[in-house]
Amino acid sequence: DAKTTQPNSMESNEEEPVHLPCNHSTISGTDYIHWYRQLPSQGPEYVIHGLTSNVNNRMASLAIAEDRKSSTLILHRATLRDAAVYYCILRERRDDKIIFGKGTRLHILP
Amino acid sequence: KAGVTQTPRYLIKTRGQQVTLSCSPISGHRSVSWYQQTPGQGLQFLFEYFSETQRNKGNFPGRFSGRQFSNSRSEMNVSTLELGDSALYLCASSSEGTGTEKLFFGSGTQLSVL
After folding, report:
1. Taking Cα atoms as reference points, which of B46, B93, B108 lies closest to residue A98?
2. CB–CB of B55 and A96 under 8 A?
3. How far is B41 from chain A (nearest CA, A)?
4. Whole-number Å distance between alpha carbons of A49 and A71
5. How many Cβ atoms sit within 10 Å of the Cβ of residue B37?
6. So what's the pLDDT on residue A91?
7. CA A88 to CA A96: how far, in whole Å?
8. Is B35 part of the contact surface with chain A (CB cutoff 8 Å)?
9. Which of B43, B50, B93, B110 would you mutate first to test chain A, the one with the most A CBs within 10 A?
10. Model confidence pLDDT, tens digit, residues B66-105
């Protein structure tokens, strides 16, 4: 099962961009890179996902390295509501045995 | 569209008892997966059901089981509860259960075993 590695925690100032890194050196060609975040007392919430190309949506951007061994979730302008644990996971195209890492706890400073 | 609904929200049991948790997926979703979340181990995959069949299973003992009904609703059962089973149990649904899709999570059932 493909694994991901993320920093345990990060800190950012409100209204500044945040770059959350994820290493997935054992990624296979059919693995999609997904990001979810979990706010206190809630289930994880989908943020963004991609395969090879960079992706943008209203919440964030996903930058995927050319060799796909790493990716970066970009929050363009952090708010206090973005304080959460962010999980980077790999999901196979056909199969769905999902392995979560420990995630990155993001602290936003006002 | 209603989100993923898990019941009950909180549950307290004693060691040796069994428990059944329920998950109603988003309408039209056929894949339901279950996860255990503890402070020490984080989020761990339990199993996934698709069209009433278990398609994937994590590394949990046989005391953990599940099923899915024809309307895609799913239940998980834990028999002979142990103190270590205290956790937040989350379920997630998606349309086909493939890596191309988003997962939608419920708010979870917080199980405490005394």
Report:
1. B46
2. yes
3. 8
4. 11
5. 18
6. 84
7. 15
8. yes
9. B43
10. 999 999 999 999 999 999 999 999 999 999 888 788 999 9
| pLDDT confidence bin for B37, thresholds 50/70/90 | very high
Amino acid occupying residue A35: W
Please tell me the predicted confidence (pLDDT) of residue A2: 57
pLDDT tens-digit readout, B73-83 = 999 999 999 99
Which residues of chain B make contact with A6, given a CB cutoff of 8 A? none
Q: Between chains, do B99 and A102 touch, taking CB under 8 Å as contact?
A: no
CA B74 to chain centre: 8
Q: Which residue of chain A is at minimal alpha-carbon distance from B96? A: A94
Q: Work out the pLDDT band at B12, boundaries 50, 70, 90.
A: very high
3-state secondary structure A69-100: CEEEEEECCCCHHHCEEEEEEEEECCCCCCCC
Give chain A positions within 8 Å (CB) of B36: none
- Asked if pLDDT for residue B63 goes beyond 90, the answer is yes
Q: What's the pLDDT tens digit per position in A44-79? A: 999 999 999 899 999 899 999 999 999 999 999 999
Q: Extract long-range pairs of A98-101: CB within 8 Å, 24+ residues apart.
A: A98/B33, A98/B45, A98/B103, A99/A1, A99/A2, A99/A3, A99/A4, A99/B45, A100/B35, A100/B42, A100/B43, A100/B44, A100/B45, A101/A3, A101/A4, A101/A5, A101/A6, A101/B42
